[in-house]
Structure to design on (830 residues):
């Protein structure tokens, strides 16, 4: 078929299609009803909210698919350099509102639905979260996908389609219990199953020497084969036709599976065995920042890496015929070390399968990878025991050894025989358990190593990766994290969105968050401030209603809504917050009745999940409930203080909690939070921060000024010194008193809380709760003082949002694209 014929055929098909789908309310209604009848298979006269949601989603999906096709046809035709963003975690949350907003047809849909007797917002609530990730790292991946699409970059995301996302947290008697998140139960309209896009992924087996043209070569003879199937998730950009792809892999048994067993007649057993292979992509590991060397996790990583790279190489070969061009056409980004087996896998493909010379392959490979690390301390870095790796992926282990021995040779030439340093920099860690250091591998092979904030990057250079920094200073960069204002303002805070557009005189801030600085021009306008306060109040109402349904606690809208929501970790110091609340309660109890009138009423809100095996984190959750029980049932305290724990904190809960917060807390011991991205979402929503000088907070201060937030605690430089003092560390009396109350069983469960109390006892207090407590209380007092002057508070709130533009993931992505990936926008014409 010639080009002319193909074009004629395409035009005829397009005319049969009747052009693109139409977006006027009448056409939308027709489409929704069509899906009610033919997709959901319900009667047009009888369908409930969930069925309406399904039909609605399918009509949105159709529109996404059109743009997805056009975008990819355009990329294929223009052959730009592409970015492949490799991440084992994506926290996408819900898709409906986000898609409709990014497609720009929100109003049309609202009207179409109301004519059918439905309300858009009610249907949107029917959707469950896609929770294929743990916390900040995973939500940051999702924000970056939104920005890549919006800024027209030719990018693909790759991930795993876990059948069980992050566990659901339920609270029984104050204790966390985990329940499976079988999120695909009711179908998922946002994915497109590609039954024909499949790859075989191999495991186990042996490596054998073969002779190839008189030369000895190693060849892997695998022992088990699993098939990877692609599921595509369209990611629409805002204000552009570009719709990029997030391709997630699911495991299914290969058709060649266990032929032996079929022949020997063990038919039933072989079918049962197939289910084992399906289980590879079954469940997301719920621990962030701890790596346990589990075989299934390693299998997941390799399954993901192998399928993604086969797909990427296939696409490359379709358009290009020489691997020398790879670095000009392909950028591979490692989101943390989780996908770093990619390095060994691509070497295996180029050397073993494509038969490139090792050195030639290595030179190519070193030009295509970039790496972002989200970890601060060396102990948190990922390591894989060589025993495990060698049995699952014998050829890859050989490749890793060879990469390492080449690197060691080169290194000796550069630094001489400094054996301590050589062993620190080696990819292979000798020791009780010999293992592969995935971070060292990633650094060695990547052209750029990114930190996630300025402070984080300084720590990487001076401590965590000092040896590597001294060898290759030019590799080390930082690109401060960001969040997308589309999700975190436009979707989650529509009233603020309208207010911003009104006073900025434009909606352009939705694609250019720097324009938010324009709010500074209106900060002295009382009319503006009044509207600003009204928006906050509206969001507080929404949150208060939610709190009442979830926990039965009635809260006053006049109280300060004080929020700490994030994964539960000792370093994030939720315990500091709870101790502060106990102290506040204790003060109220001991206060003269007349003085109580001057007290600022507070609603303290805490939410977050503890990793299932993390005992101390689980005790923190229990303590929070125990303290809440006492305070909330103390009639004497009334509205002056309430404490509520919000169960099952996730993306959609965040969308409601964040806009309703007056104050948010970010309490990590300085030097432990690589960046932190929650703070950026609160900032955009005009919520004041109470925070330590850690991670990206340092840069937030540069943008909004130290007068507009409540800063406290030891600085990074002081932390090491304080730790050295150990038992001689000064701790305020109030801290000792609060600790004593918990120890003495004031909140019950004395024995259960003992080990928790021990973690903050003088001499044992690694995260320095005791020594930061005094300054924490001062910051809290400053927040109270500011809150009683509503005009002052509102100004601080406006100036927070006005300074949040730098923390848009659009800025993050533009920096990565220009500096690290060297890719250009590629906008599909309308
Ligand atoms: O990544 C976020 C940062 O804002 C946070 O400061 C950082 O703590 C977070 C293993 C992790 N670091 N490491 C992880 C997640 C899952 C896992 O299996 C580690 N998450 C972070 C975004 O940069």
């Amino acid at each position: 078929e010639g080009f002319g014929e193909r074009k004629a055929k395409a035009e005829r098909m397009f005319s049969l299609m009747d052009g693109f789908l139409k977006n006027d309310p009448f056409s939308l209604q027709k489409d929704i009803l069509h899906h009610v009848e033919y997709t959901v298979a319900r009667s047009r006269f009888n369908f409930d909210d969930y069925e309406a949601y399904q039909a609605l989603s399918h009509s949105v999906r159709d529109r996404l698919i059109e743009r997805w096709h056009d975008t990819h046809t355009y990329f294929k035709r223009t052959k730009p350099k592409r970015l492949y963003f490799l991440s084992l975690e994506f926290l996408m949350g819900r898709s409906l509102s986000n898609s409709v907003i990014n497609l720009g047809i929100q109003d049309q849909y609202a009207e179409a639905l109301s004519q059918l007797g439905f309300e858009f917002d009610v249907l949107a609530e029917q959707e469950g979260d896609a929770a294929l990730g743990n916390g900040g790292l995973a939500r940051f991946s999702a924000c970056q996908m939104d920005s890549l699409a919006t800024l027209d970059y030719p990018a693909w995301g790759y991930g795993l389609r876990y059948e069980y996302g992050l566990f659901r947290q339920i609270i029984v008697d104050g204790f966390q219990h985990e329940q499976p998140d079988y999120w695909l139960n009711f179908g998922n309209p946002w994915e497109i199953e590609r039954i024909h896009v499949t790859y075989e992924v191999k495991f186990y087996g042996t490596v054998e020497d073969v002779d190839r043209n008189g030369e000895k070569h190693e060849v892997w003879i695998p022992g088990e084969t699993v098939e990877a199937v692609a599921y595509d998730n369209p990611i629409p950009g805002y204000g552009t036709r570009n719709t990029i792809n997030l391709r997630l892999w699911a495991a299914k048994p290969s058709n060649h599976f266990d032929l032996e067993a079929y022949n020997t007649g063990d038919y039933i057993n072989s079918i049962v065995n197939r289910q084992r292979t399906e289980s590879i992509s079954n469940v997301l590991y719920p621990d962030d920042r701890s790596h346990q060397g589990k075989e299934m996790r390693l299998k997941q990583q390799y399954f993901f890496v192998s399928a993604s790279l086969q797909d990427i190489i296939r696409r490359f070969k379709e358009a290009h015929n020489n691997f020398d061009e790879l670095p000009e056409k392909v950028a591979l980004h490692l989101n943390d070390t989780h996908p770093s087996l990619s390095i060994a896998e691509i070497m295996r493909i180029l050397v073993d399968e494509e038969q490139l010379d090792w050195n030639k392959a290595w030179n190519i490979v070193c030009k295509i990878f970039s790496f972002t690390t989200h970890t601060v301390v060396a102990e948190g870095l990922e390591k894989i025991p060589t025993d495990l790796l060698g049995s699952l992926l014998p050829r890859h282990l050989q490749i890793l050894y060879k990469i390492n021995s080449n690197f060691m040779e080169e290194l000796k030439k550069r630094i001489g025989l400094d054996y301590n340093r050589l062993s620190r920099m080696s990819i292979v860690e000798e020791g009780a358990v010999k293992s592969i250091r995935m971070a060292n591998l990633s650094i060695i092979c990547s052209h750029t190593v990114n930190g996630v904030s300025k402070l984080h990057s300084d720590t990487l250079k001076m401590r965590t990766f000092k040896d590597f920094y001294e060898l290759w200073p030019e590799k080390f960069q930082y690109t401060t994290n960001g969040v997308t204002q589309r999700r975190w303002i436009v979707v989650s805070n529509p009233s603020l969105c309208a207010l911003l557009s009104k006073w900025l005189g434009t909606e352009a801030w939705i694609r250019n968050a720097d324009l938010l600085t324009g709010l500074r021009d209106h900060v002295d306008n009382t009319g503006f401030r009044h509207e600003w306060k009204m928006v906050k109040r509206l969001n507080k109402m929404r949150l208060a209603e939610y709190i009442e349904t979830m926990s039965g606690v009635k809260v006053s809208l006049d109280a300060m809504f004080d929020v700490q929501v994030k994964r539960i970790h000792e370093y994030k110091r939720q315990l500091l917050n709870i101790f502060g609340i106990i102290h506040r309660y204790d003060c109220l109890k001991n206060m003269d009745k007349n003085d109580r009138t001057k007290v600022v009423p507070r609603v303290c809100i805490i939410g977050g999940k503890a990793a299932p095996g993390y005992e101390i984190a689980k005790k923190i959750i229990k303590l929070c409930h125990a303290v809440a029980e006492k305070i909330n049932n103390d009639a004497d305290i009334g509205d002056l203080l309430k404490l509520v724990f919000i169960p099952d904190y996730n993306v959609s809960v965040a969308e409601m909690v964040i806009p309703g917060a007056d104050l948010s807390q970010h309490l990590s011991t300085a030097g432990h939070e690589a960046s932190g991205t929650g703070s950026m979402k609160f900032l955009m929503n005009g919520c004041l921060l109470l925070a330590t000088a850690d991670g990206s907070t340092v840069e937030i201060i540069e943008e909004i000024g130290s007068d507009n937030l409540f800063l406290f605690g030891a600085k990074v430089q002081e932390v090491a010194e304080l730790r050295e003092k150990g038992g001689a560390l000064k701790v305020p009396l109030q801290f000792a008193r609060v600790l004593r109350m918990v120890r003495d069983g004031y909140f019950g469960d004395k024995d259960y809380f003992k080990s928790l109390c021990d973690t903050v006892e003088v001499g044992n207090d690694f995260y320095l709760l005791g020594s930061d407590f005094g300054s924490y209380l001062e910051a809290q007092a400053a927040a109270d003082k500011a809150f009683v002057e509503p005009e002052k508070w509102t100004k601080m709130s406006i100036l927070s949002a006005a300074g949040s533009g730098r923390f848009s993931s659009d800025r993050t992505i533009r920096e990565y694209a220009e500096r690290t990936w060297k890719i250009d926008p590629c906008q599909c014409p309308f």
